[in-house]
Amino acid sequence: MQRIINRLPETESERRMVKHLVIRDPSSGVTDEWVTPEMTFCRNLESVVLSGVPDTSDKTIVRLARDNQNIQGLDLTGCRYVSDVSILELVSQAPPLQWLQLSGVVLTDPTVSAIAKTFSRLVELELCDEPLLTAVSVRDIWAYSRKLRTLMLARCPQLTDGAFPSPIKKGVKPATGSEKPLPHRPLTWLDELPPLVLRHTAVDLRVLDLSYCTKLTDEAVEGLMVHAPSLHTLSLAGCSNLTDKSLEYICKLGVQLGTLNLAHVSQITDVGIIKLARSCLQLRSVDLAFCRLLTDMSVFELAALRHLHRLVLVRVPKLTDNAIYFMGDHTRSLERLHLSYCDRISLKALHHLLRNTPNLNHLTATGVPAARRTGLRRFSDLPPDSLDPDQKSVFRVFSGENVAALCKFLDKEKLRRQESEARNIPFIARSDDEMDLY
Q: How many CB atoms lie within 10 A of CB 353?
């Protein structure tokens, strides 16, 4: 036995043989008190996942570091009782770590810098939800962790442009204008950090998540695109300071880029999306939720992508039927489409989309007035219990076989409407599958 999932070893034989201990399910009942001695008894561990043990303490991690010298992977996501103390002990033992997931573990800059300088073999590093993380330690990640393939820094509110590689600009003159300058703001030591100029590039980096790092600007994106030219998955959701300039820099990734998340990046417009769609021809997933300035023009360009499988257009208020008809005619590869709270979309357009996208297996139309029509609710998935009554009443998510069933129902209703018109009888919508006109 080499892997144990959601339980602890029960016999001496299991303790000798187990190499991968995975506890992800919090309902498994495993507590830190039980895990701590196992870190000593199991001396051949290569990877440990304790995200399902939220009360994991420093004592457990210290024992793991001291008694398992070959540990290659550690996941402590959500273990909020773990601190710098145990992570620094892990660093001092210098095991051959290749992946480290510490999202939700509150760490300080010295600890993160020590991680970057010690674990040179790291290919995956997750440091999301770190309120104390600043540019100082993240600069060390770029400088020392050269083999990274995945870097997750989502929801780190203190990160600024200084945390990321700087584009080398020669002969750039400061902008001048007739506008009155803003009042002087005292500089902090973080503001005075010099530009991070690196002689190497992160050629192995494929996945980068900077979601909701709200202080980032276009300049940070420019430097990243120069330093990480092989990105496949990029998430900049919630980076509200970004503009179309960032999209121009992202265009440099070209066919390398496959997944892009720009949800809540409210300043981007059709101009940027058009350039993006014409440069990154291998895009498979694009999230543009809450990008309120976008219109049908953006969808026209994205719909022409041959490999587009997933498109999120939640609360893009300027979207009309024209975009839906265009997707139905051109985006045959589409599998998942999210159109919640797009108020201008009609049921006729959705029907056309369903009939012409054979691979579509998930359609979200929550809050779309046309989707509240009689008879459609029975094809929707059940709403989550966490929603209030008003939210449940507009919940419309169609998935799996229900997508085909919905299309068949709308086909029947179309025939009923045509027959009603032929007989000059008022059309009355039905909620069942009968063909009777009244």
A: 25
Are 318 and 290 in contact by the 8 Å Cβ rule? The answer is: no
CB of 346 closer than 8 Å to CB of 371: no
Strand partners, 3: 20
Distance CA 183, CA 191 (A): 16
| pLDDT one-digit tens code per residue, 307-318 | 999 999 999 999
Question: Distance between CA 221 and CA 437 in Å, rounded?
Answer: 59
Q: State the pLDDT confidence band at 171, using cuts at 50, 70 and 90.
A: very low
- Residue 395, classed as helix, strand or coil, is coil
Nearest to 317 by CA among 267, 368, 274: 368
Task: Supply the pTM of this predicted model.
Answer: 0.91
**H/E element, 311:** strand 310-312
Q: In this structure, how many other beta carbons lie within 10 angstroms of the beta carbon of residue 186?
A: 5
Count of all residues that appear for the chain in the document: 438
In the chain, the amino acid numbered 124 is E
Provide the token pair at 58.
Answer: 């420093």
Collapsing DSSP states into helix, strand and coil, what is residue 84? helix
Q: What distance in Å separates the CA atoms of residue 174 and residue 176, rounded to the nearest whole number?
A: 6
Q: Which helix (H) or strand (E) holds 338?
A: strand 336-338
8 A C-beta contact, residue 243 and residue 221 = no
Cα-flanking dihedrals φ and ψ of residue 233, to 5°?
-125, 125
pLDDT score of 213: 96
Q: How far apart are CA 112 and CA 91, in angstroms?
A: 10
β-strand partners of 124: 99, 150
Report how far residue 132's alpha carbon sits from residue 84's, in angstroms, rounded to the nearest whole number: 12
pLDDT of residue 327: 97
pLDDT higher at 423 or 125: 125
Q: Which residues of 102-137 are buried (b: 16+ CB within 10 A; e: fewer)?
A: bbbbbbbbebbbbbbebbeebbbbbbbbbeebbbbb
DSSP H helices, 68-195, are 84-93, 109-118, 135-144
Give the N- to C-terminal CA distance of the chain in Å, as an integer.
66
Q: Residue 272 and residue 243: Cα distance in Å, rounded?
A: 8
Tokens of 264: 């809540």
Scored b (16 or more CB within 10 A) or e, 257-267 reads bbbbbbbbbbb
| Percent of the chain that is helix, strand, coil (3-state, to 5) | 35, 10, 55
Question: pLDDT tier at 133 (50, 70, 90 boundaries)?
Answer: very high
pLDDT at 49: 96
The alpha helices in 270-330, defined as continuous H runs, are 270-279, 296-303, 321-330
